[in-house]
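Why should sequence recovery work at all? Because a backbone constrains its sequence more than one might expect. Tight turns favour small or flexible residues, buried strands favour hydrophobic ones, and helices have their own preferences. The token representation captures these environments compactly. In the example below, the structure is given first.
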């Protein structure tokens, strides 16, 4: 404004169009407005005239400002002190000035749009559900979003370039070589804008390993944009399901084989025992027969492991204090494993009880202990720990344990040679061993797996090469305190008798061998090849059978229904179930429902004699 003239900016701001209708109409049609004398404005300028006069404007000139063919405003001069006639060149000057302002305005609004766009992208990138990383053509990391750091723990200071990234993310040199060559190969194969997803296991800053989907895209600028998706939970879940299914089918196969072998071994072992009974230790065949017996026992032990793996082994569950079992097993291990291995036992306090088969738990600990011992030929530490563990849903979903709840955790760790990741994947498979021929059968962990599964539990293995191995076993806890543990069953010196025993088994070898054996000890024997036969014989004998030895797994009505039949004929019938194969817990069920006793196949004959006497002498 000229000197002494008050600016009218305030008054003019927010002025409605209706206050200056003619003015607006002219400006909108891109007309210049030249008014030499406000005083002489005609009637139709009434509204504008009042406004001009209120501001003491005498003359004015204005030109519309056009931006991209749209009128966005106007620029003008007001003359307040005196009237004036606007010269042609003044109007031209005004026009030029207005055009310049229009260009500046245009640039300003484009900058603003760009700024907003950039801001929007920044927000998007910062909060993207993927980790994002920008890499320049020199391999330097120039930008990493928030999610990138959330996933890996690394920020740009930790991993300023590809070289450090590869070193930190893939500490295992052989994996690193694979990752780098995949990267280089992709760079050479794909063009700008093409995607080439890859999956790699990456080590994070805190040492945790994550499974990551990489989606790198080459940009026109020569840079690479890489998106990272953390699929650890998803893929470990899939892997677990696959693994469980695989183990189930191997279990079915192994269980079938073991069952058949069990029967064969029973017959072989039985006949060897018979031959031994008929001879004394001076006999020339005695050492050979003893050696055969030993081989059969060893085979039976292997079969037992297989049955354990396939969860077909008979289990006798009771309320167990895991600390007591662990202590016992550790005592055995202390005697059996080399002295240079130090065993540490850390029993958890107030440990919840578990419903478990103590014999199987001991077997499990011995297998784990013997593996640990093998892994520490130079000596080391074997640590056995127990503790209560309540696992919430969140933990259960992502870890090996799929049902949340109360567990007792048994941890067995060693400071041995450890395993590579590929080995860990297979350790629970039966017959998987890395030990030399004759040293390992590969059944140790398979049976551990079967035992844990059979108890409704879970097992995990974590191992680092050269560092050691940790097995974690979660057994479902009982909502009770540990009750007194019953004493284990003991067998008396074998003793015969004169009672009548009915042997029911579909395998003729076993039937005959048992018959002969029992007769040898003074018993009268009857034989049946099926459940149906057994019922008929039992009925015909009209109570003159003192004991029935019953196989469970037979064609036809099978052992379970035969037991029911016998019980309905005589509720006091004494039945000894003989089975190595407790399909879906049949044996357990049978024992709990009225059978007098159970003996696991393959059994030693004197063990059988003891059981028989025990049952017959019961009142
Ligand atoms: N604590 C451990 N440290 C290192 N490697 C182990 C450990 N436990 C098991 N392994 C590996 O797992 C493999 C399988 O173990 P598993 O107990 O099933 O069979 P094994 O020990 O080879 O034979 P078996 O137990 O039947 O005599 C072993 O051969 C070994 O490579
Ligand atoms: Mg082993």
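From this structural description, the recovered sequence reads:
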């Amino acid at each position: 404004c000229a000197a002494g003239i008050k600016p009218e900016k305030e008054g003019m701001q927010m002025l409605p169009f209706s206050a200056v209708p003619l003015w607006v109409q002219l400006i909108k049609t891109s007309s210049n407005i030249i008014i030499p004398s406000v005083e002489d404005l005609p009637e139709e300028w009434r509204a504008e005239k009042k406004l001009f006069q209120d501001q003491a404007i005498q003359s004015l000139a204005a030109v519309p400002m056009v931006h991209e063919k749209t009128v966005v405003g106007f620029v003008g001069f007001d003359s307040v002190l005196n009237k004036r006639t606007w010269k042609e060149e003044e109007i031209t000057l005004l026009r030029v000035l207005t055009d310049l302002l229009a260009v500046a305005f245009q640039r300003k609004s484009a900058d603003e749009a760009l700024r907003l766009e950039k801001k929007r992208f920044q927000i998007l990138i910062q909060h993207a559900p993927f980790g994002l990383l920008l890499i320049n053509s020199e391999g330097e990391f120039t930008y990493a979003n928030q999610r990138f750091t959330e996933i890996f723990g690394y920020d740009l200071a930790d991993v300023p370039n590809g070289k450090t990234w590869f070193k930190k993310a893939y500490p295992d040199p052989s994996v690193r070589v694979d990752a780098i060559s995949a990267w280089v190969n992709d760079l050479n194969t794909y063009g700008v804008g093409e995607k080439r997803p890859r999956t790699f296991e990456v080590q994070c800053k805190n040492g945790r390993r994550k499974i990551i989907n990489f989606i790198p895209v080459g940009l026109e600028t020569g840079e690479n944009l890489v998106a990272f998706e953390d699929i650890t939970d998803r893929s470990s879940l899939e892997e677990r399901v696959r693994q469980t299914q695989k183990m189930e089918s191997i279990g079915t196969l192994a269980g079938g084989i073991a069952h058949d072998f069990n029967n064969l071994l029973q017959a072989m072992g039985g006949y060897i025992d018979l031959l031994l009974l008929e001879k004394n230790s001076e006999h020339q065949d005695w050492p050979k027969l003893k050696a055969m017996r030993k081989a059969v026992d060893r085979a039976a032990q292997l079969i037992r492991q297989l049955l354990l793996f396939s969860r077909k082994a008979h289990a006798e569950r009771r309320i167990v204090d895991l600390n007591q079992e662990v202590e016992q097993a550790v005592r055995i291990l202390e005697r059996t494993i080399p002295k240079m291995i130090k065993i540490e036992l850390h029993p958890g306090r107030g440990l919840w009880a578990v419903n478990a088969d103590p014999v199987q738990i001991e077997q499990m600990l011995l297998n784990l202990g013997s593996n640990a011992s093998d892994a520490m030929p130079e000596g080391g530490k074997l640590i056995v720990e127990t503790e209560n563990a309540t696992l919430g849903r969140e933990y259960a979903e992502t870890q090996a344990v799929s049902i949340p709840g109360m567990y007792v955790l048994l941890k067995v760790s060693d400071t041995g040679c450890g395993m590579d990741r590929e080995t860990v994947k297979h350790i629970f498979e039966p017959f998987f061993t890395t030990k030399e021929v004759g040293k390992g059968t590969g059944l140790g962990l398979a049976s551990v797996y079967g035992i844990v599964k059979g108890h409704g539990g879970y097992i995990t293995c974590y191992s680092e090469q050269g560092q050691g191995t940790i097995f974690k076993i979660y057994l479902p806890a009982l909502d009770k305190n540990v009750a007194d543990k019953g004493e284990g069953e003991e067998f008396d010196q074998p003793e015969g008798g004169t009672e009548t025993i009915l042997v029911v088994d579909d395998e003729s070898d076993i039937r005959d061998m048992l018959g002969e054996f029992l007769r040898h000890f003074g018993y009268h024997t009857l034989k049946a090849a099926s459940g149906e036969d057994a019922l008929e014989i039992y009925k015909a004998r009209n109570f003159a059978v003192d004991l029935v030895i019953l196989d469970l797994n037979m064609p036809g009505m099978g052992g379970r229904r035969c037991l029911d039949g016998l019980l309905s004929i005589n509720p006091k019938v004494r039945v000894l179930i003989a089975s190595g194969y407790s399909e879906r817990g049949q044996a357990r069920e049978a024992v709990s429902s009225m059978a007098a006793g159970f003996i696991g196949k393959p059994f030693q004959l004197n063990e059988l004699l003891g059981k028989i006497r025990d049952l017959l002498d019961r009142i």
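A few observations help interpret the result. The pocket of adenosine-5'-triphosphate (ligand 1) is lined by residues 367, 371-372, 375, 414, 416-419, 423, 427, 432-435, 440-446, 469 (CB under 6 Å).
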